[in-house]
Amino acid sequence: MSPRAPENFEEHLSIEELRETWSLLSEEDRVLGFKMAPYEDAEDFFLSLPAREQAELVASLPPGERRGWMRLLPPDDAADLLQESPPRIREDLLGLLDDATRKEVIALMAYAEDQAGGLMDPRFARVRPDMSVDEAISYLRRQVREYVGTLRYVYVLDEQQRLLGVVPFREVFSAPSATRVRDVMRTDVISVTENMDQEAVSRLFQQHSLNAIPVIDAEGRMKGIVTVDDIVDVVQEEATEDIQKIGGMQALDQPYMSSPILEMIRKRGGWLLVLFLGEMLTATAMAYFEEEIARAVVLTLFIPLIISSGGNSGSQASTLVIRAMALGEVGLRDWLRVMRRELVAGFALGSMLGAIGFLRIILWQAVTPLYGPHYMRIAFTVAASLLGVVMFGTLAGSLLPFALRRLKLDPASASAPFVATLVDVTGLVIYFSVAIALLSGTLL
Amino acid sequence: MSPRAPENFEEHLSIEELRETWSLLSEEDRVLGFKMAPYEDAEDFFLSLPAREQAELVASLPPGERRGWMRLLPPDDAADLLQESPPRIREDLLGLLDDATRKEVIALMAYAEDQAGGLMDPRFARVRPDMSVDEAISYLRRQVREYVGTLRYVYVLDEQQRLLGVVPFREVFSAPSATRVRDVMRTDVISVTENMDQEAVSRLFQQHSLNAIPVIDAEGRMKGIVTVDDIVDVVQEEATEDIQKIGGMQALDQPYMSSPILEMIRKRGGWLLVLFLGEMLTATAMAYFEEEIARAVVLTLFIPLIISSGGNSGSQASTLVIRAMALGEVGLRDWLRVMRRELVAGFALGSMLGAIGFLRIILWQAVTPLYGPHYMRIAFTVAASLLGVVMFGTLAGSLLPFALRRLKLDPASASAPFVATLVDVTGLVIYFSVAIALLSGTLL
Predict the structure, then answer these.
(1) B259 pLDDT band (50/70/90 cuts)?
(2) A415/A314 Cα distance (integer angstroms)
(3) How far is CA B150 from CA A52, A125, B122, B236, in A?
(4) Which pLDDT value is given to residue B50?
(5) B227: helix, coil or strand?
(6) Does A53 touch chain B (CB under 8 A)?
(7) What percent of chain B has pLDDT over 70?
(8) 3-class state of residue A388 by DSSP
(9) DSSP string, B150-205
(10) What is the DSSP letter of B222?
(11) Torsion over CA of B91, B93, B94 and B97, rounded to 10 degrees?
(12) Are the C-beta atoms of residues B195 and B117 closer than 8 Å to each other?
């Protein structure tokens, strides 16, 4: 069925060694190591690879050795592999599949990868409503090839393939032999449409603690099932994307180590540039207050402290809200309640930092009189600015994800660095305004 | 079996309405809404709630109405509910279970929640190796109560309950009637120990694309199975914890909206305080350069721009590495390869920002001569500092997670704000050192 290691090749790489070193190997060494592994292990290993790496591996094998590996895959995984393969060999690879699977794969490839249709397995256990339980069981025993995936639910379809109901397999299995399927099936089935987004599908899985969800087309015909094991990957993928956006960059398409370095620089550079241009406004703001700075250089000492405190509290708030939105815990309509919570939190946190900043200046002054005769006023200025900046940061950080969501943009773009930049500029204005108010006639 | 709405109560809340409004309802209203829902829907809804909310709901019901709900739960979920219940009613709730389940639940409660033992379901399909396939199937049909969960795999145990092998259920189902189980079982089973950490368990699921993994005790006896649907929750939970740490706070134990506000303030305040104390070093660093600042106030204009660029590039790098570590894509041994990648990226990104900063000053000066006669030197100073700060930020951000991991701390603690604080202090030192080197004799 597929390539084995030459008989005289004594030294086998164990599959664990192969797995360990895989990411470090060149394409050639991967093929070599893969061919050296005992066949059963290689099969398991192949099935556990992500689609992209399966595609690379198959593309590196001589054309004569590809068929066995292609036929090992269930239709949804074969479709993923094809989508990751270079276009010039796609036709050839499709030709290696048996006729039935090829048709299913072509149908699946029409769906976007991140939609229910792209995730689904077109093979599932189906029975007719008027079968008896005994008939259903022996029918299912004969039809095993039809449900490569899971045997968790049995779906009851009419002649037009419309979904009538569902029975957990264990209920079919344990019901008295003569019972009709119709009498044990449940009719209030949770299903999804082919083009439902994968994030919405994964929320449905979690809300209802399901193991599989049927996919229905516009005419009500059942096309396949999405199973919970596909959802684990979706959840990881979406979390990774969000985390990378929160870290202030465009999400990478590939694992960190295998991302081409130029692409990575481009995806990081884009955001960094936007942030840099935004941050240039700080120089403009400072220039505006240059006269005050020249008169009271001591004020500049606290600039990084004050603006970073605003940035940090803002990044906490935005991260919390972004994640709560992604998990469906917080929706658009909750903005007022979130704002109220964050006002309280911002006031408490700002007061704390303000008090500490105040004490710090008073105490330092007692040791080395660095801040001059007006140190008390300076301490008040710093404390009041900290309170203002932290409250502003907290509010901006928590409300920005709502604004982005409202504009149909991804809330995760309200990343820590983005919020920090916004708060840096505002923080400077707050600080110098407070300074002018409190220090006029003395230092300024 | 359980409380229904009073017969004369006409207005039913639909279960979707209940789900929608749940997080907004008081405890009393929750109980009321729950009781008003049609029983079948209420059952589904109850099963889909997180353990903590199940516990709250059961605790709010009158003691006479609790039994039905407790008995609805499989042992692993009942154990989770009990762990979330107030200690004073735990004994009572345990007493409501049937004897067999109570024993299983007590055994499960001995495990930590985040270990394989705490995740596992003690009920699974088990057969003896010498049964024929037909015997196995009719045995399984009679024993359905024994595997509430999944019927994906059938486990083959000896008389001491030691695991001999496993057969995918569909293979038992499709094999010829007289075949012995022993002859179709696979013996190279991937299993976990009771105290394996849930993150390691979830990686195993993803590496091997499994749907269930058996849990084995120190004597090799099989205790239960962990199924992939439990892993979805684990993956979400771990991602949420990491995201919150990356945002610069201690991870919350509860969803954002239901976290008590004092606890939330405490968890955010702790980190904010640490960052604030760290950031105070910026004031110290600035005081050290106060003389230079007084002589060349123009230098202060670029302080926020320069230090934030370092912080932003550092936060990108640390986020990427933290996530790659969590997904197992990058291990401790990869630090040198990561460092090489980040040196390249940092140099490219730093040169880009440096060039833009340089142009910005030259162009601005052409419009309004803000920066004085030495603007060219100032432009060079800013550009060189940007390159240095971005490279330092990128390196610090990418290597800090390795250092934390090496010290057996959580790499996710190298959050964006943490890296930014570190880079702010260093950034100031870099900036003023470059300034002294390039501007001595002219501005300084």
Answers:
(1) confident
(2) 10
(3) 30, 15, 12, 21
(4) 82
(5) strand
(6) no
(7) 96
(8) helix
(9) --SEEEEE-TT-BEEEEEEHHHHHHS-TT-BHHHH-B-----EETT-BHHHHHHHH
(10) E
(11) 160
(12) yes
Three-state secondary structure call for residue B123: coil
Q: Position of tokens 């502003």? A: A392
| Helix runs in B301-374, H state only | 303-326, 335-367
* Nearest CA-CA distance, residue A280 and chain B, Å: 6
Name the nearest CA neighbour of A236 among B231, B410, B254, B390: B231
In the structure encoding, which two tokens stand for residue B386, read together?
Answer: 């940007």
Q: Which amino acid is residue B331, in one-letter code? A: G
Q: Give A252 to chain B, closest Cα distance, Å.
A: 9
Distance between CA atoms of B379 and B359, rounded to whole angstroms? 8
Interatomic CA distance for residues B400 and B269, integer angstroms: 22
Confidence of residue A10 (pLDDT cuts 50, 70, 90): very low
Which pLDDT does position A12 carry in this prediction?
Answer: 57
Answer yes or no: are the C-beta atoms of A52 and A82 closer than 8 Å: no
More confident residue, B44 or B193: B193
DSSP bridge pairs for B192: B215
Distance CA B109, CA B78 (A): 9
CB contact under 8 A, A209 and B47: yes
Q: What are the residue ranges of helices labelled H in A61-146? A: 67-72, 75-84, 87-95, 99-109, 116-119, 133-142
The verdict on A359 touching B (C-beta cutoff 8 Å) is no
Helix (H, G, I), strand (E, B) or coil at A215: strand
Q: Tell me, yes or no, if the pTM score tops 0.80.
A: no
Rg (CA), chain A: 31
User: H helices of B61-153, where?
Assistant: 67-72, 75-84, 87-95, 99-109, 116-119, 133-142
What is the token pair recorded at A5? Answer: 């290691």
DSSP for A164-205?
EEEEEHHHHHHS-TT-BHHHH-B-----EETT-BHHHHHHHH
What is the model's pLDDT at position A13? Answer: 64
Q: Considering CB atoms only, which of A144, A240, A417 is closest to B312?
A: A417
B220, B162 contact by CB (below 8 A): yes
| B264 has a chain A CB within 8 A of its CB | yes
Q: Which of B147, B229, B424 to mutate to test the interface with A (most CBs of A within 10 A)?
A: B229
Nearest to B379 by CA among B392, B368, B390, B364: B364
Question: For residue B261, how many other CB atoms are within 10 A of its CB?
Answer: 13
Distances (CA, A) of A402 to A325, A396, B248: 9, 10, 20
> Where residue B324 falls among pLDDT bands split at 50, 70, 90?
confident
Chain B: closest CA distance from residue A293 (Å):
7
User: What sign has the CA pseudo-torsion A243, A246, A252, A257?
Assistant: negative
Residue B249, SS3 per DSSP: coil
Query: According to the model, what pLDDT value does residue B142 have?
Result: 78
The answer to whether residue B168 scores a pLDDT higher than 50 is yes
User: Of all residues in chain A, what percent carry a pLDDT higher than 70?
Assistant: 95
| A100 at interface of B, judged by CB pairs closer than 8 A | no
The per-residue pLDDT for range A81-100, each reduced to its tens digit, is: 988 888 888 889 999 998 88
Mean pLDDT taken over chain B:
85
What is the DSSP secondary-structure string of A242-279? HHHHHTTSPPPSS-GGGS-HHHHHHHHHHHHHHHHHHH
Q: Does A168 touch chain B if contact means CB atoms closer than 8 Å?
A: no
- Closest to B53 in 3D by CA, of B96, B97, B17, B23: B23
pLDDT at B387: 96
- Residue length, chain A? 444
pLDDT-derived band of residue B281, with 50, 70 and 90 as boundaries?
Answer: confident
